[in-house]
Design a protein that fits this description.
435 residues, five-stranded antiparallel sheet, 1 helix
């Protein structure tokens, strides 16, 4: 394995006109082929990413998890698991209370079939705690994973047999042992297809959002479960709506995605599923890919036409506080992959690209009032798959971004930024490096 390290430590040095500080960067060529990061989580003093490492020469495709020390990016532990050959699909990672959980796919018993695989690790040492393979049918694939105090929940689709549609799948595990607590499958004769796309958890509830397909109607299906028993607490639907992200904060469920070809954000009462407010005013050709909530602020990130779109809402009322839709260079498209925020700033990551042309990793920081603090674009490349940031995680003083970029081939990338000064300049003098 060839790893190129870059330790920058630019604590007071402006890397561009807006003054963001890159602390370190890691590029990893894991297999001599195409390495694509998929997701990122933070655990005990570590930033941990998951991705696909593939080599077209022999059709090898592995799940790779790597834990990096937050302070300097040095490798703490790595795990690699063979996946189903010929498939390079999304993978998921989550963490809670010192444990790390990953979801992927492995070959099934039947030729050309896939099963879900869910694994639990000790986050500090990388020791495998448990491994579960879920064979629900022919085309079983995870789409989202969440970890909470009472359960680890994976959602996706599968459970089908030849000639039959895929189903909406949910399974909950006990975090320490991997014991199956409960599972659910939505399989209805009046529906052509059902699929679960995203999940959120509190101590007592699990919220899963997906789609039902009947004819040409692609509708939202949102279900709330008892986290301990799996009992269905409530269910709601919405026409022509596709969810991409769900969060639960302070008794409210927040949902982002697209509806009728426009971007969509909605809020519901977590107890009973009643709609509190909705916004689907932007479009056409728009959609949100991610959602973040902090205090009384909700921020959704996505795109409309060729432009990146960032929109901040009051969590209680749905009132739009601010919006940014920055212009793009002719022939380029800006896309947001993920967003995070705290009390001082909002961070959005994604890519700026020409279709089948050049592309670069995009990271933007905003004050909570929508003022642009800094814009960082890096790793410009040409060709497919090119370069993109795919996920972001925010520590107390540091921002961690993962993605992929063209080196000799296409490599994993993780970048760490010092964000102590963002939104509050005096913090640069008083904060300590506790991340």
């Amino acid at each position: 394995m060839r790893i190129a390290w870059c330790f920058l430590f630019l604590m007071l040095c402006s890397a561009n006109a807006f003054g963001q500080n890159l602390l370190w960067e890691m590029m990893d060529d894991a297999s001599g082929g195409t390495d694509v990061a998929r997701a990122l989580t933070l655990s005990t003093r570590a930033a941990i990413f998951i991705g696909n490492a593939s080599n077209s020469a022999d059709d090898v495709n592995d799940l790779v998890i790597q834990s990096l020390r937050r302070r300097n990016g040095s490798v703490l532990w790595t795990d690699r698991v063979p996946m189903a050959h010929g498939l390079v699909l999304d993978l998921q990672i989550a963490s809670h209370q010192g444990r790390v959980f990953a979801a992927g796919y492995v070959p099934g018993a039947v030729v050309s079939s896939t099963d879900m695989v869910i694994r639990g690790y000790d986050g500090l040492r990388g020791t495998l705690l448990w491994n579960s393979v879920w064979d629900a049918g022919r085309d079983d694939l995870p789409q989202a994973l969440v970890a909470g105090p009472t359960a680890v929940v994976v959602v996706g689709y599968g459970g089908n047999v030849p000639g039959q549609p895929v189903n909406f799948l949910v399974r909950a595990y006990e975090p320490g042992s991997g014991l199956i607590l409960w599972e659910d499958r939505v399989e209805r004769p009046d529906l052509d297809t059902t699929a679960a796309w995203t999940v959120a958890i509190t101590r007592n509830r699990v919220f899963v959002a997906g789609n039902t397909l009947s004819g040409t109607a692609r509708d939202l299906l949102l279900r709330a479960y008892n986290a301990f028993s799996g009992e269905l607490v409530w269910e709601t639907t919405r026409p022509s709506t596709t969810p991409t992200a769900i969060k639960v904060v302070a008794g409210r469920v927040f949902l982002a995605g697209s509806s009728f070809n426009s971007s969509y954000v909605g809020a519901l009462d977590a107890k009973n599923g009643e709609w509190l407010w909705e916004d689907d005013a932007t479009g056409p050709s728009g959609g949100f890919g991610d959602l973040a909530v902090h205090g009384q602020r909700v921020v959704a990130a996505g795109s409309v036409g060729p432009n990146l779109l960032l929109r901040a809402y009051d969590a209680s009322t749905g009132t739009v506080e601010w919006q940014d839709q920055p212009p793009v260079s002719p022939g380029y498209n800006d896309r947001a992959s993920a967003v995070v925020l705290n009390a001082r700033a909002v961070y959005v990551v994604g890519s700026s690209f020409q279709p089948f042309g050049s592309s670069e990793m995009l990271v933007r920081a905003y004050g909570v009032d929508g003022t642009l603090l800094w814009d960082d674009r890096s790793h410009r490349s040409v060709g497919v798959p090119g370069t993109s940031a795919v996920d972001v995680a925010l520590g107390k003083h540091r921002l961690f971004v993962t993605g992929y970029a063209q080196g000799v081939r296409t490599d994993f990338v993780v970048r760490a930024y010092d964000v102590r000064a963002d939104g509050t300049a005096s913090q640069l003098e008083t904060a300590t490096l506790s991340d």
